[in-house]
Amino acid sequence: MLAAGASAIGAVTLITARLGSSARAKKLPAAVAHAQEAQAPAAAIVLIPRGQWGAEPPQVSAGGRGEHGLYDPATNPDGWLVYDQPLEDVLEMVIIHHSALPLSDGPREIQQLHLEERGFADIGYQFLINETGQIYEGRALDVRGAHTLSFNYGTIGICLIGNFEEIEPTSAQIVTLDTLLTDLLARFPRITRLAGHNDLNPGATLCPGGNLKPLLPAIAAAHGLSYGVG
Fold this sequence. Notes:
The chain is an alpha/beta fold. It has helices at 22-27, 30-37, 50-53, 87-90, 107-116, 171-187, 197-200, 216-222, and strands at residues 6-9, 12-18, 42-48, 93-98, 127-129, 135-137, 155-160, 193-196, 226-227.
């Protein structure tokens, strides 16, 4: 997954984004602003590609049903949908999740959960961020996600690894999220909104967790994004 604004370095992708002015930093949660100020003017995050974390290929076949089959608006509307328009024209919102799992359960374990228990054809999120701020490539950006009921088309699902009903997200996770958002907004200018999972599916989930969700309005504001349900 390599797009404008990213450069290949060996088997990984390097995303570099300016952290922004002090005025922008003041809009972020205090711990995040302080962590940013301690960094160099430009922060870089290395995207670990699917092959490096041991991802299985998407389980899609011509005769499959649901996500395991190809999209057809009449016969298989929930099928594996590869966008047929430029992503700059499709992607409009970022949705934040937590994994609701122990920190030790990384992208490989999350993919297995999605394949074996939820019946998805692949991991549902496009990006995942662990407690050290490491970012992992999930589902391809040019494929409809499987992370938020009724809001998968044209959205990017970002999962912060951990159960934020029980623990706090780390500053490293939030700083990486901020840097990733800067990169995504530069590449996909139609993105105008950020939401937590349960903003869009209220009553159905606690995701992204009570310790992460309160941070999201300030993060959205710092990037000039609307927050929550449009």
